[in-house]
Amino acid sequence: MLTLLSTVLAGSAIGCSSGSGGGSTASDKPETAPLKQVNGKFDPPVTITTVRGVPGPATFKNGESIDDNVHTRWAKEKLGIEIKSLWSVVNTNNAYDTKLKLALSANEPMPDIVHASGEMARLLIESGRFQDAGALFDKYAGETWKKAMAEDPTVWFEYSREGKRYGIPALDYDYNNDPVMWVRGDWMKKLNLTQPKTIDEYEKILDAFTNQDPDGDGQKNTFGLSVGFKKAFANHFGVSWLFGAYGAIPGIWQKQPDGTLAYGSVQPGVKEALAKLKSWVAKGYIPKEAPVWDEAKAGSFVSAGRAGSFTGPYWSEAWPMGDLTKNNPTAELATYTLPVGSSGKGMHFATHPYAGAIFINKEMKNPEAFFTYGNFLFDNLADPKAGSEFENGWAKGYDWDVVDGKVTTDLTKIPGGGVRVFFYSLLMTQGPRIPSQNITALVNLAKSGNKPTTPYERYWSQLAPPIELQSSSNVWNQRANRVMNAYTGGATATMTDKGDFLNKLEMETFSKIVFGDEPVEAYDKFIQTWKSQGGDAITKEVNDWYKSVSKK
C-alpha cells in the first residue's frame, strides 16, 4: 500500500529517553541527576528501552540487526541516545499484544516506551504503571510537534482518564482513509456516461454497467458495484456515503445538534438507505456474495473485469484493485467525488489521524530525553528542508540513493538493494507525521501538474501516479462531508457484556434485509431490540465518557 511507503520521509522516528527499562510497580520515580547535553547530544549517552511488534520479517543489509543498524547508530552518534529492544516479535496473529499482555499480567519489567492501541492501550492505562504522558508533552514537546497535535485535539480522548492523558497519540496522516468513487473510465466512455453527482445519477450508471454489456463480450456478466460487507456496511471501503446521503452513518457515534452522541445505526435515514441497497441487489447491481466478501475480494472482483465501480481510499488503484491493468492492459480507471443525496447533502466515513499511542513507564528516569528526540524529528524530518541531510530520505544507500545522476527512492534501483531499516526501529511508530501534510502535498502536486516545490512533495511526485493525485483532490474537495466516530473510549461496561450480541444482531439484520427475504420493516424491530438489550445503557455510558473528556 502506497500509504505505508510514505515512511521513507515520515516514518523515521525513535523516542529517546534514559531509564532502567524496568520497574514493576507504580512507585515514585527515582531521583536522578539532570541529563547533560553538548551541542544537542547527551553526554554521557542515555538509553531507552522498548519492545517491538514488527509487521513482517525485518530486512536488513550490511550485517545489521534491529538493535544495530544505520538508524540506531544515527541516534547514538547524533543525539547520544542508545536504543535497546527488550524483545521483538513478528506481529502476525496479534503476537505483539499477546506477548505484551503476558508480560503485564506476570508483572514483568516494562520498557521505557511502549506503543499500543485498542484493548492493549486500555490495559496499559489500567495497569497503573504508566505516567501522565500528556503533562510531559505539555512541558517538553516542541512547537512543531504541538502544532501537529493541535490539528485534531480529539486524538487525546481515547487515552484520557480523569483529566490525565496517559498515551501520546501516534499521529498519522489525515484523509488517508476517506473513500472516493472509483469507476471503469473506459466503460464510462463506451456507454457515454458522465460523472454522477447524486445517488439517482449514480444509479443510472449502475444500471448501465449491469445491463449494457460494458465489456463487450455479449454476455450479461457484469455488475455495477463491487463491495464487501463482511466487516461492516459503512467503513472506508463500504457504502457510508449511501447511508450518509440519507443522514446517518452506521457503526459510528455521531455528534448531534444538542451536543450529545448518538449511534448512527439506529438513526433516521438508515432504513431508507437499506431499502435502496435492497433494490440494488434485486436489480442485480451488486453481487449477492457481497455479505461474505471483504475489501480485498471486492477489489479483486473489479480487477477481474466483473464490476464497474468501487469505493475506497485514494490509493485503492494500488490495492485492492492493483491487478486491473495487469489483467486487462486497456482498462482505465477514473475517480470522482462521492455522490450525495437529492438535496445536495452527504456524509461519508473518515478516520482519526492517529494510530495507537506512546506510553511512558513511570520508572523512566529521564523521560524528557524522549521529547528531545521527538522534537528533533518533527523539526527536521516531518517536513525536511531543501539542502538538509534529510532532504532525500533517511540514509543514502538505504531508503534513497543517487543512480545515474538522479535521486531515487526506488528500492530495487539502490545498489545492494534498498531497505527502510528505520521502519523496524521506530518508537514513534508512525514517524513524525503532520496530519494535514500528506493530503496538502498531493493536492498541490495535482494543481501544479506534478511539479514539486518542497522535498516532501518531490518524494510524492516520484511515488504517486497521476490517478492518485486526481483521487486525492477528490478527497479534498469533499472534505466538508467527512464524519469521524466521535466515540473512541474503548469498550464500556455494557459494550463488554452486550456488544458482541448487538453487533451480530446489527450485521445479521442488515444483511437479511438487503440480501435476504426480510422486509425493510424488520429494521424497526431491530431498533427496539437494540435499545432494550443494552443500546440505551451504552448510549448513556458513551455520553458520560464524552462529557468527561470534552470538558474544557
Provide an overview of this structure:
There is one protein chain. This protein has 19 helices and 18 strands. It is an alpha+beta fold and 552 residues long. The strands form eight sheets. Strands 5-15-8 form a three-stranded antiparallel β-sheet. β1 and β2 form a beta hairpin. α4 runs parallel beside α5, α15 crosses α16 and α18 runs antiparallel to α19. The longest helix has 28 residues.
- Poorly predicted residue ranges: 1-28
Strands across the major sheet, in which order? 5-15-8
Tell me, briefly, the overall form. Answer: globular
- Helix content estimate: 25-40%
Structure class = alpha+beta
Major sheet attributes: 3 strands, antiparallel
User: Quick check: average pLDDT?
Assistant: 91
Calculate Rg over CA atoms.
Answer: 25 Å
Helix count? 19
Taken as a percent bin, the fraction of beta residues is 5-15%
Number of strands: 18
Distance between the termini: 39 Å
What is this structure, in a nutshell?
The protein has helices at 2-5, 7-10, 70-79, 95-105, 118-127, 133-140, 143-149, 185-190, 199-211, 240-245, 270-282, 295-303, 324-327, 368-380, 437-448, 455-463, 466-477, 493-515, 522-549; strands at residues 37-38, 41-42, 46-54, 81-90, 113-116, 160-161, 164-165, 167-171, 180-184, 253-255, 261-263, 309-312, 333-336, 348-350, 354-360, 401-403, 406-408, 482-484.
